[in-house]
Amino acid sequence: MNSRTLGKSDIRISPVIMGTWQAGKKGWVGIEDDEVVAAIRAGYEAGITTVDTAEVYGDGYSEKLVAKALSDVRERATYATKAFANHLSANKLTEACENSLERLETDRIDLYQIHWPAGSFKTEKVPIEETMGALVKLKEQGKIRAIGVSNFSKAQLEEALQYGRIDSIQPPYSLFWRQVEQEIVPFCEQENISILAYSSLAQGLLTGKFGPDHEFPADDVRSKNKLFKGEIYQSAQQAIAQLRPIAEKYETSLGCLAIAWLTAQPQTCAIVGARNSQQAEENAKAAALEISQADLDKIDDISRTVTDQLDENPVMWNFENL
């Protein structure tokens, strides 16, 4: 798998990135530790050498499983993790970084990201100048190598850039969720900021494995996902039916087709989770898939039958107290 450069840094990342929200278990059902650890390792062996996690995924549990899977190959893997919105004051951020370093069993974090802007989920509204100052200091100390943000608007990204270099932004982005293209993608092209797309398979919807009447348990985060509701969900089902012949043409899965489309977009790498080794190995195949421009355009048209019905709210879930 050919690696890419993270923003303006000297860090190399894989175009497909292992996502580990599910490894924290909180908000997910049917997740087994051994299978997740095996999936992270299988992804690494298949070329997915970059892994993304966060302190809030299972209160640090996901970070521990990343360490369990990759500690013996740490020097050849790229670690990205995130500090949550309640840890963005200088003191709390420094402590959060130390805790993540300990859980990840490493002496540096390759990419350290602000998970949500300060004030999200009724957290303290810490000035971005203070947060960025702490991140720059951590970078100078060698505890982190690059700074990223997640769930930021273009205006928030521009403000943060006044206080230090930012090499990546992590937004929700997929064939079925494309608000990021309006302002953030052009800005990131201009500023050479990498886009690390999360929910790149629309939380599994783009794999085609969920039927028209599927319902998630209340404790599954996808039960709150707008894409799995009402007319939007039915439109997604119709779009998936139109995507199938294209996937068959390339002798690939629907999931790989969606990932390959995403990584063909400007500045964009795809974060993809996996519950088991088979899924991780399948996701890695997307990196070798080259789709013709004509088919990329056709996929784009199909995608918009879903996205044209969505509002401007960039948050994919009906979270309370956001």
TrEMBL record:
<dbReference type="InterPro" id="IPR020471">
    <property type="entry name" value="AKR"/>
</dbReference>
<dbReference type="InterPro" id="IPR036812">
    <property type="entry name" value="NAD(P)_OxRdtase_dom_sf"/>
</dbReference>
<keyword id="KW-0560">Oxidoreductase</keyword>
<dbReference type="GO" id="GO:0005829">
    <property type="term" value="C:cytosol"/>
</dbReference>
<dbReference type="Pfam" id="PF00248">
    <property type="entry name" value="Aldo_ket_red"/>
</dbReference>
<feature type="domain" description="NADP-dependent oxidoreductase">
    <location>
        <begin position="16"/>
        <end position="303"/>
    </location>
</feature>
<dbReference type="GO" id="GO:0016491">
    <property type="term" value="F:oxidoreductase activity"/>
</dbReference>
<dbReference type="InterPro" id="IPR018170">
    <property type="entry name" value="Aldo/ket_reductase_CS"/>
</dbReference>
<dbReference type="InterPro" id="IPR050523">
    <property type="entry name" value="AKR_Detox_Biosynth"/>
</dbReference>
<dbReference type="InterPro" id="IPR023210">
    <property type="entry name" value="NADP_OxRdtase_dom"/>
</dbReference>
<protein>
    <submittedName>
        <fullName>Aldo/keto reductase</fullName>
    </submittedName>
</protein>
